[in-house]
Amino acid sequence: FRLPLCFVIHKIVVYGKEGVVGFTPRTWFLFRAMGHDVEKVHWMQGSLQEWRDAGGPIEDGPTVVPKSKDILANAVADGASDGLSSYVAQDPFQENRHVVVTMEQLEKMIQSKEEDFLILDTRGSAGYAAGHVPGAQSMPYSELIREDEPHKLKTKRELEETLGRLGIDAKTEKTICITCGSGVSVCHGVIALEECGRRRDQPTYIYDGSWQEWGNDPNTPKEKSDCS
């Protein structure tokens, strides 16, 4: 399918209201996964209410989303159509895009027994201990967010200290694959790693099915760990 032309020339800022703001990193990641320019899609920490309280401008009334053909027609009429073009959403499962892996692809990574990849699990320590993907290292989501403002990530310095304590090198040249419970907090993990210096051109995947898929499949290998 084709995304509206405005997505090509405009930046996108993803935000949410209180109660659902924790899911906004997933929306941020979906735009990137579908091929949107990574330099033009951003995640706003905090909620819409915080924006309002800080004096940020607010629009009232219904939002009208123009169709791509109308955007192009208006641009042509205004003589500003140079550089406008639509783009086709890309397949996030293409291995050379370093975005998302399937269960089968993750199994191949594990079976290869190579040392050039790292699996990170962002679930809580109890869930990780009860069962996880073989070889996965714990990087609890709760360690990445602020205790007093759980809808925000820690500062860069705090994240670096946290990853250092967990023995995780965000800048490693290894391929990183992040898994969680249902495919949401993996996106917080991607942001945290990039905040700590991981380059966007380094292979960093999320396992979209995460433990909900892996843990419920009787044929997938599983490990348990003592996190006490």
Please specify the SSE layout and strand pairing:
Blueprint lengths: L1 E2 L2 H4 L2 E5 L7 H10 L7 E7 H6 L14 H10 L9 E2 L11 E2 L1 H10 L4 E5 L3 H6 L6 E2 L17 H11 L8 E5 L5 H11 L8 E4 L2 H5 L14
Parallel strand pairs: 2-3, 5-9, 6-7, 6-8, 8-9
Antiparallel strand pairs: 1-4
Radius of gyration: 20 Å
DSSP summary, beta strand count: 9
Measured between the Cα atoms of the first and last residue, the distance is 48 Å
Order of helices and strands: EHEHEHHEEHEHEHEHEH
The largest beta-sheet arranges its strands as 5-9-8-6-7
Structural class by secondary-structure content: alpha/beta
Major pleated sheet: 5 strands, parallel
Strand content: 5-15%
Low-confidence stretches: 1-7
Assembly annotation: single chain
Tell the overall outline: globular
Helical amount among residues, as a percent range?
25-40%
Structure notes:
The N terminus is likely disordered. This protein is of the alpha/beta class. It has a 5-stranded parallel β-sheet. Strands 1-4 form a two-stranded antiparallel ribbon. A two-stranded parallel sheet has the order 2-3. The chain starts with a strand and ends in a 14-residue tail after the last helix. β8, α8 and β9 form a beta-alpha-beta unit. It is built from 9 helices and 9 strands.
Notable traits:
single chain, 228 residues, alpha/beta, 5-stranded parallel beta sheet, two-stranded antiparallel ribbon, 9 helices, 32% helix, 15% strand, globular
